[in-house]
Amino acid sequence: MQLHSITLRAMQMRLKAPFTTSFGTEWDRHFILVEIRDTEGRSGWGESVAMKEPIYNEETVATNWHMMQDFLIPLLYQNPVQHPENVYKLFSHIRRNNMAKSALEGAMWDLYAKQQGISLSQALGGQRTEIEVGISLGIQDSVDTLLELVGQYVSEGYRRIKIKIKPGWDVAVVEAVRRNFPDIQLMADANSAYTLADCDHLVRLDQFKLMMIEQPLAHDDIIDHGALQRRLQTPICLDESIHSLEDARKAVELGSCGIINIKIGRVGGLTESKRIQDYCLRQGIPVWCGGMLEAGVGRAHNVAITTLPGFTLPGDTAASSRYWEQDIIEPEVTVQQGLIQVPTAPGIGYQPVRKIIDEYTLHTATFRP
Ligand code: OSB
Ligand code: MG
């Protein structure tokens, strides 16, 4: 693949409503948008899901910028690849920094698919023409507000509801949602807010027929989750703990989870996401695509990866309009009856709109070979 230039844009987009998890509240989404141009004028797009602060994982917008500028972009220029599948290996001697790697790798995948004249889903070997999605609801000011939101999104057709939990906002809240919505597919995400000392408390969640409990224990743990899983009937889903296929294999072999949330950025890109999904399919472990409050480019990548056969559970890829007054792509991602129609146009299949992108751009830099 002949590269002409790589442009990074530091972006800031205001969320329609603040998003609260056990680790904090986001009002504005800060992220890096990547555009890789080839010598024939095509552009591949990627989005880093690292946040402004290192509170979900260790990466930030600033560390990603540094990693891309000083290490990853030079590697791409010095080692031309024939296929985006080779980018993961090219970056592998650089430790972690998976979200930085993934943003560049994703842009290479989009560019490759456009060069081949096929959709990103097709380039990845995806099969589905539509994908089922759910929605993730942050911690609210009151249970009534949460119940109202759940009702709204259930009536819009979302296929499962995820609620965020933390100590003090857990059993009673899940109980209230379940009582009001006895038949919905419901799950809870703790973002590592508990320890094994909370085992007896977490076991109380078993009575609410949750599809899964996501990442109850430490962000870097796969041992204690195994101990908790042996006490819980509800499947544990790992999010923060899984950074690679190797992590997934170890967690599955230890019995630490029954389900895995795949976030493209967290595992270092589409190639590794695809491998984890392959492995989980063989092991009978359902996977779904997690969300990081993405803007349109990242959202489009999530749509594409979800078309692979292992993604058997509805993910967090909600409609653009759930997050943004105006997304950076056209058309925006829309959800009808809990389904997203997978675009068939080349690459990500949604067009990034430069005029809108410019409105949200804080600063930019272009790198040439
Ligand atoms: O744990 O899945 C998570 C958002 C930011 C960081 C971590 C998580 C989330 C979400 C939101 O749950 C998912 C989304 O709607 O994009
Ligand atoms: Mg999560």
UniProtKB/TrEMBL annotation:
One of its GO terms (biological process) is menaquinone biosynthetic process. GO terms for molecular function: magnesium ion binding; O-succinylbenzoate synthase activity; racemase and epimerase activity. Residues 143-235 form the Mandelate racemase/muconate lactonizing enzyme C-terminal domain. It catalyses: (1R,6R)-6-hydroxy-2-succinyl-cyclohexa-2,4-diene-1-carboxylate = 2-succinylbenzoate + H2O. It holds the Pfam family MR_MLE_N. Belongs to the mandelate racemase/muconate lactonizing enzyme family. MenC type 2 subfamily. Converts 2-succinyl-6-hydroxy-2,4-cyclohexadiene-1-carboxylate (SHCHC) to 2-succinylbenzoate (OSB). This is o-succinylbenzoate synthase. It comes from Desulforamulus aeronauticus DSM 10349. The gene is menC.
